[in-house]
């Protein structure tokens, strides 16, 4: 079903487009949400999180209104272990501006690393991004600006990425249970959102704005669910 980020098929009306979208939005707690240090249920290290990431070739595509990068290899070499359960990386994509709000602040961009367990459970890692003329800790700079154009991304360009360098230097993270942020916005999805930001060079960020545009779902109600703040 066709949906959009503006107009009569925008986020406020997603659940009216079809019964599957309605069911997904009404039967699960929704994402994104506002994350705030002062509203977390617990600040501790009780949630164990480990990243096993390797340098990997990704292939570009353009769908659901944004650029996606998928691992070219079928081998499950990139995974997250959260609370002793493995989730394997299957997709990297981008939202502008950020979907999550952190301590009352929005950011120019947020990217999502989508993982799936062998039992088909989902875990998404969210990383918010700040612009910098001299990015300190990002490999997003390897993405050629031309690759962000929808028609070029659709050609399946190959991009090498050192995945560990995508993550912020400070690994403190929020954890909560929510949903996907694009239709059907089904859940449950385990969300890991880093409290601190990584960096993207200004030129690449501008290219995202020109070629991708606004692709963020508005904040959803917290609905009383617990939110945790932990150290990696």
Automatic annotation (TrEMBL):
Known catalytic reactions: hydrogencarbonate + H(+) = CO2 + H2O
Span of domain Alpha-carbonic anhydrase: 1-231
Signal peptide extent: none
Keyword Lyase: yes
Class of enzymatic activity (EC top level): lyase
TM stretches of this protein: none
Xref: Pfam families: Carb_anhydrase (PF00194)
PROSITE patterns xref list: ALPHA_CA_2
GO molecular function, one term: carbonate dehydratase activity
Enzyme Commission designation: 4.2.1.1
Assigned keywords, A-Z: Lyase, Metal-binding, Zinc
SMART domains: Carb_anhydrase
Family recorded in the similarity comment: Belongs to the alpha-carbonic anhydrase family.
Protein name: carbonic anhydrase
Origin species: Carnobacterium viridans
């Amino acid at each position: 079903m066709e949906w959009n980020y503006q107009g009569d098929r925008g986020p406020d009306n997603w659940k009216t487009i079809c019964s599957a979208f309605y069911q997904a939005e009404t039967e699960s707690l929704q994402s994104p949400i506002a994350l705030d240090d002062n509203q977390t249920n617990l600040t501790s290290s009780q949630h164990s999180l480990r990243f096993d990431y390797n340098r990997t070739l990704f292939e570009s595509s353009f769908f659901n209104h944004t650029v996606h990068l998928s691992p070219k290899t079928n081998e499950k070499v990139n995974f997250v272990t959260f609370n002793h359960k493995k989730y394997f990386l299957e997709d990297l994509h981008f939202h502008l501006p950020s979907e999550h709000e952190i301590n009352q602040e929005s950011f120019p961009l947020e990217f999502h690393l989508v993982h799936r367990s062998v039992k088909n459970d989902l875990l998404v890692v969210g990383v918010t991004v700040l612009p910098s003329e001299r990015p300190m800790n990002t490999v997003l700079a390897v993405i050629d600006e031309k690759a962000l154009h929808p028609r070029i991304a659709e050609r399946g360009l190959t991009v090498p990425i050192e995945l560990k360098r995508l993550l912020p230097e400070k690994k403190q993270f929020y954890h909560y249970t929510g949903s996907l942020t694009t239709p059907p916005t089904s859940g449950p999805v385990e969300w890991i959102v880093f409290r601190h930001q990584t960096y993207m060079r200004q030129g690449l960020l501008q290219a995202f704005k020109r070629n991708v545009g606004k692709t963020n779902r508005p904040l959803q109600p917290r609905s009383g669910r617990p939110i945790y703040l932990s150290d990696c």
